[in-house]
Amino acid sequence: MLSQILEFAMLFAFGFSWPFAIVRTYRAKRVDGKSPAFMIIVLVGYACGIAAHLVEGTKLWLCWIYLVDMALVSTDLTLYFHYSKRRGA
């Protein structure tokens, strides 16, 4: 049970930071300093976390937290491509 709580805390901490990054990107309409490669690596890491839980068949409720975090990172990545395209045009 303690490992589930700690994993949830880690996911919450990581997920908590993404809305701030999303809002900052949306307001500034700039992506300077953002790394799409980093965001893709984070998405792969979250996917591996989900896969681990599915393979083990345990702590499946944590998969929902992973999915929320993935949605946040995907939103930031979408904004990155949207604003980097506009800047280059």
Describe this structure in a few short sentences.
This protein is mainly α and 89 residues long. Helix content is 85%, strand content 0%. The chain contains 3 helices and no strands.
Task: Summarize the structure in words.
- This protein is mostly helical and 89 residues long.
- It is 85% helix and 0% strand.
- It is built from three helices and no strands.
- Helix 1 runs parallel beside helix 3.
- The radius of gyration is 15 Å and the shape is elongated.
- The termini are far apart.
- The model has no long low-confidence stretch (mean pLDDT 92).
Topology (SSEs and partners):
Elements: H1 2-28, H2 36-56, H3 61-88
Helix pairs in contact: 1-3, 2-3
Task: Looking at this protein, list some descriptive labels.
single chain; 89 residues; mainly alpha
Q: Give unreliable regions as ranges.
A: none
Mass-distribution shape: elongated
Q: Structural class, judged by helices and strands? A: mainly alpha
Average pLDDT taken over every residue: 92
Radius of gyration: 15 Å
